[in-house]
Write a structure and sequence with these properties.
The protein has 372 residues and is α/β, with parallel strands linked by helices. It has 15 helices and 14 strands. The protein folds into 2 domains: 239 residues, Class I glutamine amidotransferase (GATase) domain (Rossmann fold, 3-Layer(aba) Sandwich); 112 residues, Orthogonal Bundle (Arc Repressor Mutant, subunit A), CATH 1.10.10.60. Strands 8-5-4-9-10-14-13 form a 7-stranded mixed β-sheet, with helices on both faces.
Length: 372
């Protein structure tokens, strides 16, 4: 199909040189021949949203397509694909992704038959606008779910899943940068912003955009077993089994409220976090009693003053630990703590990692650059 003046990514084509197109559904030719016909392959549909992050469509497709295939090829074994993959757009037309790449789907959502699992791609940019541009997918998702299909959302795709109402009273996660908006729009959903993956048995969510790999491997394990999932992650050279996105999240300090006294205290904390700060000191800056100050601070920011101060210090500590040659002891004193053991526990509680683990994760790039 020719599309003048735009970039088209036709999904089946790029896999043909590897000889592993057998797990892809072609909208013109039907399901390609499968090397092991006795194997019942699960049917995965990837919902390609208008304005999606392209990698949240092609990435999961690769993972499911490579399951039982790439490892086998690398080890000189016969490929044994586990999944049939369909990419569907709301109307069957090519979708323009956030990076201006057009992705050609196999079919429209209403042509999807007998899916076992639907994966909702991530929305990039203006989430609320994207919801309006993909509204026809919402009722379709509800019908699919009621017919027994499992549904998973990638990153901000959780907004589309939440729009269906299926997440009410259930646990979900999304990209850490969209937590406040998600909570405002869907107060009845139990949001866990620290979680990389949530599992409600037939509804799944993943955190930040590249967590599509983690979600894909998790679902491959559920559908085809742990061995296949581990082999797939090894063949794709991707980490498997991450549980939290907390190390990657930056704390967001809300300043959209109109409480000028509280705003002034917030700014003062962020500029003077290295000092020995007490509640009494902060309350005095506002000329308030301590209880009144704590109540108004919590109402304005969603955090207690102590929790706010802790997060400011942790943000600073993370930045320092990302630099080469830093030690946690030095960082502890620099951000205003004297008890190293106490701050180590606070740091681990907020990031999900011990300080040494955090350093290894984020200093690796510096080490690679120096080695080059």
């Amino acid at each position: 199909m020719a599309h003048s003046g735009r970039n088209i990514f036709s999904l089946p084509t790029y896999l043909l040189p590897l000889g592993i197109g057998s797990g892809i559904i072609d909208k013109k030719e039907g399901i390609n021949d499968i090397s092991s016909p006795e194997v019942i392959m699960k049917k995965i549909t990837i919902l390609a949203l208008r304005g999606a992050a392209a990698s949240s469509i092609t990435g999961p497709m690769d993972a499911f397509l490579f399951a039982g295939v790439l490892w086998n090829i690398a080890c000189g074994q016969k490929p044994s694909p586990c999944f049939e993959i369909t990419v569907a757009s709301p109307d069957g037309k090519a979708v323009k992704c956030a990076n201006r790449l057009y992705i050609e789907p196999h079919c429209a959502i209403h042509d999807v038959k007998n899916a076992d699992l639907i994966m909702i791609s991530a929305i990039a940019g203006d989430v609320e606008r994207a919801i309006g541009r993909n509204k026809e997918a919402i009722d379709w998702l509800v019908r699919q779910y009621r017919s027994g299909v499992h549904i998973a959302s990638i990153c901000t795709g959780a907004f589309i899943l939440a729009e269906t109402g299926l997440l009410k009273g259930k646990t979900a996660t999304t990209h850490w940068g969209y937590v406040d908006l998600f909570r405002r729009r869907y107060p009845l959903v139990h949001l866990r912003p620290d979680a990389l993956i949530t599992d409600e048995g037939d509804l799944y969510c993943s955190g930040g955009s590249n967590a599509y790999n983690d979600l894909s491997f998790y679902l491959i394990e559920k559908l085809s077993g742990r061995d296949i999932a581990v082999q797939c992650s090894k063949a794709m050279v991707q980490d498997f089994g991450r549980a939290t996105q907390a190390p990657y999240a930056a704390f967001r300090f809300p300043k959209g409220h109109a409480e000028q006294d509280i705003l002034a205290v917030q700014r003062w904390i962020e500029e003077n976090y290295t000092e020995g700060i007490t509640i009494a000191m902060l309350a005095d800056r506002c000329a308030m009693g301590q209880r009144t100050f704590e109540r108004r601070f919590k109402q304005s920011t969603g955090e207690s003053p102590i929790a706010y101060l802790q997060k400011v210090r942790i943000n600073a500590a993370k930045a320092l630990l990302e630099r080469p040659h830093s030690t946690f002891e030095e960082v502890t004193y620099h951000v205003g703590y004297e008890d190293i053991s106490s701050f180590r526990k606070i740091f681990q509680r907020h990031t999900g990692l011990r300080p040494k683990e955090y350093q290894r994760l984020f200093q690796q790039r510096n080490q690679i650059q120096r080695a080059g």
